[in-house]
């Protein structure tokens, strides 16, 4: 369970990038954060994981305030999946996933048997076990994103935050990410994920928080939140919400 | 089910094998030199000092025990220090191109050493070298740091700029120095081990293994740090504290080396890179292997420096002659690695 309360953030002065952001994600809930580029999604995530210090406001995980917590403790509660990228050194996939165990590693050297088991389990859940001995830098963007997801899973936290995990992926891998996230929430994980495709929100999320110019303008069930009105506010009149066999679908406005 | 092997036996074996190689390199280097001494007599001198017994001839004793052994062991430790700190800098700054030389640490440390020669300051050359080595690397880092990121090009340019600033200051010292001071400064600029005796070795033997062990203790965290600051923090690493600790220790062992042997380039760049090709990027194995390979490399370079001619070629020249082709090879064949694919 994660609760964000009255979060304000500015890099300098009164130039707020996030203003009074509050929302709550229950245990086992898959929450999408939706909004155009520059709406403040990444900034919000960085505040949640403690990378940026909010000017005002609190973030609670399971009732504990994490804004004042040391990083070692936060990492046991929240796992973060960044957008895929290429690090400068060719770590193997299994090494990358093992790094997710860092918050739990006591000793200086060697991870313990339990750590290894968790890492293998995480790679199996995400379906990348066959890549374990490959250098991470030589994978495709989609595979790298799956590795980062496995790493977050190995971190064994109750909350997972993902920054646009599907943006670099082909359609099959996108569905694979969503399928995995669904599986995780079923096991009780709270997931916060930013996405650009409104249809993905409608299809997969339990809750949608809509961010516009640093403020939340809607929060609730996807089918209630993804409306013509909201989409027009965010993007202007470029798309239409249609009903297709009882399922809402966002389609481009064909007039252009 | 696919088998995933988390067994590090091969890597451990590689490190041990390199260690054995280092041991034989030391033995080899002690037994060769311009003045030929039978291998048996070399062994005899060592035995005499360790176990006592029959007294070896004075000339052999002087050459082997007073000259060669401290020199070879000092070369080993300095090579270890430069390679280990290179590997550490590369991990911290997330780039296989940085080295103590390129970041300006060496020039800063040489300035510190020169300062202590020209002006009678109340602390040792080692401390002075360390202070200005630290000044150089933290200046380069803060010049390059923009909004939590340190772009490679800016970092390298900052290092080059600071390096030439310190070089210029050293030149001023050369200009105002007395003849004896000038000689001492010029020695630093060339880099060499010909003057090493047991007192130098004491300084090195105490500080460098300590520094390397510290870096090894943090090698897993260095893996995480090398993924980038944001990710490292989300994995529970206090990045600021870790960075400062690692940079300080790496700069410390570099500066100690520079204060004893002058500027020896390329080791810190080349060796970690070669070690990474052999054992992979995991710093838990990369750091020990770099240390061992750095020791081997510097001993061999120094052996060449003192045996190739009857005179003495400055060690820095030998490492540069061997290092330049390697760097050119890297630039041509592994361009993408230098820039991390960004």
From TrEMBL, chain A:
<protein>
    <submittedName>
        <fullName>ABC transporter ATP-binding protein</fullName>
    </submittedName>
</protein>
<dbReference type="GO" id="GO:0005524">
    <property type="term" value="F:ATP binding"/>
</dbReference>
<dbReference type="GO" id="GO:0016887">
    <property type="term" value="F:ATP hydrolysis activity"/>
</dbReference>
<dbReference type="Pfam" id="PF00005">
    <property type="entry name" value="ABC_tran"/>
</dbReference>
<dbReference type="InterPro" id="IPR017871">
    <property type="entry name" value="ABC_transporter-like_CS"/>
</dbReference>
<keyword id="KW-0067">ATP-binding</keyword>
<dbReference type="InterPro" id="IPR003593">
    <property type="entry name" value="AAA+_ATPase"/>
</dbReference>
<dbReference type="InterPro" id="IPR050153">
    <property type="entry name" value="Metal_Ion_Import_ABC"/>
</dbReference>
<keyword id="KW-0813">Transport</keyword>
<keyword id="KW-0547">Nucleotide-binding</keyword>
<dbReference type="InterPro" id="IPR003439">
    <property type="entry name" value="ABC_transporter-like_ATP-bd"/>
</dbReference>
<dbReference type="InterPro" id="IPR027417">
    <property type="entry name" value="P-loop_NTPase"/>
</dbReference>
<feature type="domain" description="ABC transporter">
    <location>
        <begin position="2"/>
        <end position="238"/>
    </location>
</feature>
UniProtKB/TrEMBL annotation, chain B:
<dbReference type="InterPro" id="IPR037294">
    <property type="entry name" value="ABC_BtuC-like"/>
</dbReference>
<feature type="transmembrane region" description="Helical">
    <location>
        <begin position="101"/>
        <end position="121"/>
    </location>
</feature>
<dbReference type="GO" id="GO:0033214">
    <property type="term" value="P:siderophore-iron import into cell"/>
</dbReference>
<feature type="transmembrane region" description="Helical">
    <location>
        <begin position="313"/>
        <end position="331"/>
    </location>
</feature>
<keyword id="KW-1133">Transmembrane helix</keyword>
<feature type="transmembrane region" description="Helical">
    <location>
        <begin position="69"/>
        <end position="89"/>
    </location>
</feature>
<comment type="similarity">
    <text>Belongs to the binding-protein-dependent transport system permease family. FecCD subfamily.</text>
</comment>
<dbReference type="Pfam" id="PF01032">
    <property type="entry name" value="FecCD"/>
</dbReference>
<protein>
    <submittedName>
        <fullName>Iron ABC transporter permease</fullName>
    </submittedName>
</protein>
<feature type="transmembrane region" description="Helical">
    <location>
        <begin position="203"/>
        <end position="220"/>
    </location>
</feature>
<feature type="transmembrane region" description="Helical">
    <location>
        <begin position="285"/>
        <end position="307"/>
    </location>
</feature>
<keyword id="KW-1003">Cell membrane</keyword>
<dbReference type="InterPro" id="IPR000522">
    <property type="entry name" value="ABC_transptr_permease_BtuC"/>
</dbReference>
<keyword id="KW-0472">Membrane</keyword>
<keyword id="KW-0813">Transport</keyword>
<dbReference type="GO" id="GO:0022857">
    <property type="term" value="F:transmembrane transporter activity"/>
</dbReference>
<keyword id="KW-0812">Transmembrane</keyword>
<feature type="transmembrane region" description="Helical">
    <location>
        <begin position="12"/>
        <end position="35"/>
    </location>
</feature>
<feature type="transmembrane region" description="Helical">
    <location>
        <begin position="151"/>
        <end position="174"/>
    </location>
</feature>
<feature type="transmembrane region" description="Helical">
    <location>
        <begin position="127"/>
        <end position="144"/>
    </location>
</feature>
<dbReference type="GO" id="GO:0005886">
    <property type="term" value="C:plasma membrane"/>
</dbReference>
<feature type="transmembrane region" description="Helical">
    <location>
        <begin position="244"/>
        <end position="273"/>
    </location>
</feature>
